Amino acid sequence: MVPIRQDAWSKDEDVLLAEVVLRHIREFSTQLAAFEEVGKTLSRTPAACGFRWNSLIRKQYEAAITLAKKQRKEQKKNQSQSKRESVEEDRSIDLIDEAISLLITCKTHLAESNQHEASLQEAMAENLQLKQHLHQLEKEYMTVQEDYQSLLEIMEKARKMVIFQEEDQGNLRFQMDANGNLEKIKK
Fold first, then answer.
1. Average pLDDT over residues 155-179
2. Neighbours of 21 (CB within 10 A)
3. What is the mean pLDDT of residues 8-16?
4. What CA–CA distances, in Å, run from 123 to 1, 86, 111, 112?
5. Whole-angstrom distance, CA of residue 154 vs CA of residue 166
6. pLDDT tens profile 89-115
7. What are residue 173's DSSP bridge partners?
8. Helix axes 11-26, 62-168, angle to 10 degrees
9. Contact of 176 with 182, CB cutoff 8 Å
10. Is 165 exposed, middle or buried (0-12, 13-18, 19+ CB in 10 A)?
């Protein structure tokens, strides 16, 4: 039996090292991170893992490394495409949100406009009522003015009659006619 060196690598450890490094290449990670992960699993230092990879294993997996890099590139491209689509979707959502906000604002302004229109209609109706009331008051004022003028005329006639009465002292008497005018009647 040949003694096994303590630092010798088994075939399974080499495969594990290769798989982890290739996975890290595909997932945009570094080889150093892969060496640390394998080192913890195999109880070896990251430096020992790195040395084993660079000195022996790497040459055996050249095609797999190229494929992993290609997959990483496609993954990056897909992520960029997804990001662009996500950005475009976000823009679309923003535009929809803006449109909704604009519609809500328009609806609010329309409601306010309708309220102002209703207030204007009420004010116009009240204005019409006030004009009719003013016209009625003007008519009543004219009637009162005419009555006042009539009263002044009656008082003037009465004053004149009193003056005549003093002159005529007992011969005269006053009586109101059908129109409300005072007239002298001799006794």
1. 73
2. 27
3. 93
4. 115, 55, 18, 16
5. 18
6. 778 787 888 888 888 888 888 888 889
7. 185
8. 30
9. yes
10. middle
185: β partners: 173
pLDDT at 85 over 80: no
pLDDT at 35 over 90: yes
Least Cα distance to 19 among 68, 74, 73 occurs for 68
What's at 141, amino acid-wise?
Y
Question: What token pair was written down for 2?
Answer: 């040949």
pLDDT at 180: 75
Q: How far apart are CA 30 and CA 23, in angstroms?
A: 10
pLDDT at res. 165: 62
Amino acid at 60: Q
The C-alpha angle 159, 165, 166, rounded to 5 degrees, equals 95
Would you state the structure tokens that stand for residue 102, as one six-digit string? 């604009």
Contact of 69 with 27, CB cutoff 8 Å = no
Q: Are 34 and 20 in contact (CB under 8 A)?
A: yes
Average pLDDT of the chain, as a whole number: 86
Q: What is the DSSP string of 109-153?
A: HHHHHHHHHHHHHHHHHHHHHHHHHHHHHHHHHHHHHHHHHHHHH
